[in-house]
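This part of the workshop introduces the protein records we will be handling. To make this concrete, we reproduce a full record directly below.
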Amino acid sequence: MIERICNKCIQTSEAEVWNNNLCPRCGYDNPLNNGNVLPDVSSIEEKPSNWTYFFAFTLFSFISSILTIVAILIGTVMFSDDLIGIWIGSFVELFTLLLVSYIVYIKVFKTLNMRTVWTWIFGLGFFRVVGWSNDLAMMREMGLDTAGLFPTWVVVWFGFLYVFKYIIQNYTDRAWPVTNLTPNPVTQSETTQQKVDKWNR
């Protein structure tokens, strides 16, 4: 019995059940492989560790926070008003988050799974939201009017999450993975297959 192994899911199947080069288990379109010779599994690239995701998120958070603080300071100096500076920084933060996320996750950490990246940002972003209560309390102690700041920060943060996901899905080569990773290899469209291929980048 001749078997072939899929380069993606690393599962073996009888060669006769393969539809051309489509894996019958996951639908991945394997490149031609010298007939039915099994590839060297040891050469397959390992997935990034959780520490890599954590370091990338830490770098993303640190740089974006620094840029936002700079925007607040510039606004405060220009208008000689702390509250105006904070409002300017609040709106500028959306652009700093998008810029830094693009640099960190698209240009630097190119092998990360983008759905996992988004999950990390969404999950650890909860601590960011919790920290806002301390920021608001400190501002009130300074005698600043904080009305409207919290909902603005919420809109900016979730707006960033939505736009970041949209950009990844539509304007980069790091296509968002499809939900169903075990499609029918016979009816699977080329576009869907391309998204599946990029899932493990």
Residues 50-79 form the longest helix (30 residues). The chain has five helices and two strands. The mean pLDDT is 76. Strands lie at 3-5, 12-14.
